[in-house]
């Protein structure tokens, strides 16, 4: 189970270091084999390969009416592996598609991660707070 936020930087080649607290779990869970794809919210999704393969099968089975969404998720998917230093390469196509700059945020989302340009995530969260709590969460409390 991945959770928590990590402020990270992309290096000049577009590589990002996976935080040590997640690196070991990914090494055990998927031997460092990952898949990175685009999300229409403006972030990237990073999956351990076995989790992605399950999603890929479901997405592949979507009907023809969902072909545009198939393109977003499957057409932008890149298989990758963590290097010996625990880094991944974020493909230039994906960085460009979501406007990712140097400062990024890695968010643990349970069985996968979201990777956001830090500025875009701050904007997205500010909009969410300004919009108020959605009705679907009206009964939620800690």
For the record, the count of structural domains works out to: 1
Helix content: 25-40%
CATH superfamily: Transcriptional regulator MraZ domain
Question: What's the number of extended β-strand segments?
Answer: 8
What is the distance, rounded to the nearest whole angstrom, between the alpha carbons of the first and last residues?
20 Å
Structural classification:
alpha+beta
Give a quick account of the main beta sheet: strands, pairing sense, barrel closure. Answer: 6 strands, antiparallel
Summarize this entry quickly:
This protein is of the alpha+beta class and 142 residues long. It has helices spanning 20-30, 49-60, 67-74, 92-97, 118-130, and strands at 2-9, 15-17, 33-39, 43-48, 78-81, 87-89, 103-110, 113-117. The chain has a single domain (2-129), classed as Chemotaxis protein chec (3-Layer(aba) Sandwich).
